[in-house]
Amino acid sequence: MEIITETLTTPVKGHYDVIVVGCGPAGCGMAIACGRAGLKTLVIEKANCPGGAWTTGFMNPFFDGVGKAGLVGELIGELQDRGQWGGFWNISFHYEHMKHILEQKLTQSGVEVLYNTHFSRTLTEGNRITGIVAENIEGRFAAYGKYIADCTGDGNVAADAGCAFELGEEGDWKECQAMTLMFLVGNIPEKYRDGLMIFEKLDAAYRAAGAEIPFKVPYLIPVPNSHFGVVQFTHMYEYNPLSAEELTKATMEGRQQMIDAFTYLTKYDGEFRDLELIASSGVLGVRESRRIIGEYTVSLEDILNGTQFEDAVAYVTFGADLHTKSNKGQKCFGVKPYTIPMRSLIPKGYDGLVVAGRCISGSREAMASYRVTGNCCQMGENAGYIIAEAIRQGIDVRDVRMQFTLKK
Ligand SMILES: Cc1cc2nc3c(=O)[nH]c(=O)nc-3n(C[C@H](O)[C@H](O)[C@H](O)COP(=O)(O)OP(=O)(O)OC[C@H]3O[C@@H](n4cnc5c(N)ncnc54)[C@H](O)[C@@H]3O)c2cc1C
């Protein structure tokens, strides 16, 4: 590859206690906790709202949230107070209210938020991550932080710093779970307003069209207090989640699958004749990419045996859910409720960096369980409090001992 070497002048925006990269469920938990703990906190987000998959991803329902203490419990409570909670499996929510509640909480906790801002690289001193370089409408800027939190879902910050990671099955990205482009539909027939699995409907429509269905377990999930719902159906297999070109191709295939599904359903199923296509999500749903190697790796045995760790930051009950290409469906199995240890959020051999969300250290099967949003948010939140305590005591996050109330 041809390489150019640039000499750039980069203004330093500021010095922070914590810089959070990515404001999805994990990043919101992290940033709000750091702000509440009194830390000078910056969160950067490439989209124009908080929430990640919760909002830009048109994701629903909110898994492994009910019964959790802390921010997750607060979010559900406020969605309930607004009448924006319920619907599908009684755990679905309205995207715009989720954005608004998260924005209020970020602001109230004193966090500095920058949207439309893209992380580009880390600043390091040896194995310590000292800051980031990011870009937005104003150009490039640098910012220093006592701690950097990688909440990008993909482990972008940790990977740039050189942290080791796992991908797919022993490095084979083709084994990564399928990607999905979610899409919204309106004018859902009255009798389906509570939500349904539309496999039989779509399967029959695909057969009538002489086409092959890409995913066997599609859901239509109505959004509370609205006339629309989200369809979890498109499935793109064998795309490299770390290649911009492949992500673009997967997005285009998703859009084609969406148009096909909508066309076949409205044409061949009388009940869905008047269904409206509203929008595809602004971001491709990537279920699986980097798993950063941490001080501890959550294993298949841990989730089957229900391991309870002393340094627990999240309590997980959600079963493993792998969207595999082999059966064009889901491979699911239950887990014994287990906890996530803080050590799995600390990249091995690196200082000044914490990861939270789906990119923490775990086996593929474990990730398929803890990746759902209630767990990502809870681990981000409690890791934020651990960072605050480390800064207060002037010690490393590895040496902080804190116990959290994880369940209500
Ligand atoms: C198709 C699909 C369906 C799912 N269904 C469900 C479900 O029904 N229920 C459930 O609870 N979970 C579901 N999940 C799982 C869940 O959505 C994710 O695992 C979870 O959102 C991960 O949280 P996170 O905070 O780690 O990452 P994300 O939600 O991906 O958030 C990461 C944030 O970082 C930002 N970011 C990334 N890179 C950069 C950068 N370079 N610079 C700045 N910002 C950046 C992103 O814009 C994003 O806002 C689903 C996932 C997918 C893909």
Please provide a written account of the structure.
The protein is of the alpha+beta class and 408 residues long. The chain folds into two domains: 12-170 and 289-307 and 337-399, FAD/NAD(P)-binding domain; 178-286. 27% of the residues lie in helices and 25% in strands. It contains nine helices and 22 strands. The chain has helices at 25-36, 71-81, 95-108, 156-161, 199-208, 244-268, 300-305, 364-370, 373-393, and strands at 12-21, 41-44, 85-86, 92-93, 112-114, 118-125, 128-136, 139-150, 165-166, 179-180, 183-186, 196-197, 219-222, 228-232, 276-280, 285-286, 291-292, 312-316, 320-324, 329-333, 338-341, 353-355. Strands 1, 2, 5, 6, 7, 8 and 22 form a seven-stranded mixed beta sheet that branches. A five-stranded antiparallel beta sheet has the order 12-13-14-11-15, covered by helices on one side. A two-stranded antiparallel sheet has the order 3-4. It is globular. The protein starts with 11 loop residues before the first strand and ends in a 15-residue tail after the last helix.
